[in-house]
Specification:
The N and C termini lie far apart (129 Å). It is rod-shaped and about 155 Å long. The strands form four sheets. It has a six-stranded mixed beta sheet with strand order 1-4-5-2-3-6. The protein has a three-stranded antiparallel beta sheet with strand order 7-8-9, with no helix packed on it. The chain has a two-stranded antiparallel sheet with strand order 10-13. By secondary structure, the chain is α+β, with helices and mostly antiparallel strands. It binds zinc ion (ZN). The site of zinc ion has 7 residues, from loops.
Length: 297
């Protein structure tokens, strides 16, 4: 864990005549030597030609003066050096220097972003003996602290772990988060748990909705099947109705032919040319095709 090293003393005024530990920031990146990630020594620091107003005291550690300075975003690292994020230096830089670098970074960023009054826009001035800046209008600015909490919730042998949905590694950890303005650590724990609980509620709602919709879809499918079966039965019934009528017609035609044959036989004694037709008519033909009857004498 990164913690402020023992015997570190915060400083509000520079110390002259001692070799310094210099943390030079470009945004949230610190200047280190390529290869061994060493901080710039006094010679390298002086070579940067920084504006004295941009150099701030941080503290004393092991009799060495720790200072920080900021450069513009467009600044380029001198030959043999590079700007690296503190996270990238984790394991490359020892924990004590990394902890002081974290402190230096916050002081630097505060100084860089509070050069002018947030109330009236005039230049701010450092307050002697205090980590504060003040404007002639009365407005003061202090370094922003971002309190965070981390809590391990236990239930018997089990631990409550959570993970951020945006986590690239998907790793679970104890509940942790930043405190909102006016919030206590306990409030933050409850809020974090509430968020997790709410996420579970949303997930459960989704599961219930999915289940209900799947049941409804199954019912609709069943209704579709039943309706299709019903309509098919009606089609079949219609076809059967037509078939029955066709059979009736054919039966009638057969009887008609018998009748015609008998009539033809009866009249054949009296005429040389039989005037009675005895052929079948095509049931699919139109009405005019079935108009042959006994010719009147
Ligand atoms: Zn002001």
């Amino acid at each position: 864990m990164i913690v402020t090293p023992e015997r570190f003393e915060p400083l509000l005024a520079p110390v002259e005549g001692r070799e310094a530990v210099s943390f030079v920031f470009r945004g949230f990146e610190v200047l280190v030597r390529e290869g061994d990630a060493a901080l710039p020594d006094d010679t390298a620091f002086a070579a940067l030609g920084l504006d004295a107003a941009n150099v701030l005291p941080v503290g004393l550690w092991r009799e060495r003066y720790c200072r920080t300075a900021w450069v513009r975003k467009e600044s380029v690292a001198p030959a043999g050096y590079e700007f690296k994020s503190l996270r990238a230096l984790w394991t490359r830089m020892d924990d004590a220097h990394l902890a002081i670098a974290g402190r230096a970074c916050q002081i630097c960023e505060w100084a860089r972003t509070h050069r002018f009054c947030g109330s009236c826009g005039k230049p701010m001035a450092f307050v002697p003996g205090e980590r504060a800046m003040k404007c002639a209008c009365g407005h003061s600015a202090y370094p922003r602290i971002s309190p965070a909490m981390m809590v391990l919730v236990k239930k018997g042998d089990a631990l409550l772990l959570a993970r951020n949905v945006a986590s690239p590694t998907g790793r679970f950890s104890a509940l942790a988060g930043f405190l909102e303005a006016g919030e206590s650590v306990e409030d933050a724990v409850h809020r974090d748990r509430a968020l997790d609980t709410y996420e579970r509620v949303l997930q459960r709602n989704l599961d219930e909705l999915r289940s209900a919709k799947q049941t409804e879809n199954a019912r609709i499918e069943q209704e579709l099947d039943e309706r299709i079966a019903e309509l098919r039965a009606r089609i079949e019934e219609n076809n059967q109705g037509v078939s029955r009528e066709l059979e009736n017609l054919r039966a009638w035609q057969a009887r008609k032919q018998d009748e015609e044959r008998r009539i033809a036989e009866a009249v054949s004694y009296f005429v040389s040319e039989n005037p009675v037709s005895t052929g079948t008519t095509d049931p699919s033909a139109d009405d005019q095709g079935d108009t042959k009857h006994v010719r009147q004498n």
